[in-house]
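Methods — Computational structure assignment.
A single polypeptide chain was analysed. Its primary sequence is given first, followed by the predicted tertiary structure written as C-alpha cells.
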Amino acid sequence: MSSIDSNLIYQPRRADNATKIKRQAAANALQQYSLLALQAIKDGESPAKTRLKMMRALTDLPTELPKESYGSIRKKSTGPSSR
C-alpha cells in the first residue's frame, strides 16, 4: 500500500469556503450586467475583459495573462524574413 501525502488529499475548509464565495460572486456578476459593468469600471477595463477574467476565476485558471502576450509575440514574428 502506497502512502499518499496528506496535503494532496485534505484541503482546509477555509480555503474551500473562500473559493466557493469567490466563484459565487463571479457567477453573480456574469449573470447581472450591472454588476459586471460596475466591476469593469472599478478595475478600469472593458466589460469583455472583466467577463473573461471572471470566467477564468470560475474555472480556476490564472486570471492574469502572462507578461508576454500574444500581441508582443506576433510583433516579433512579423519582422523581416530571410527567404
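Note: The radius of gyration is 19 Å.
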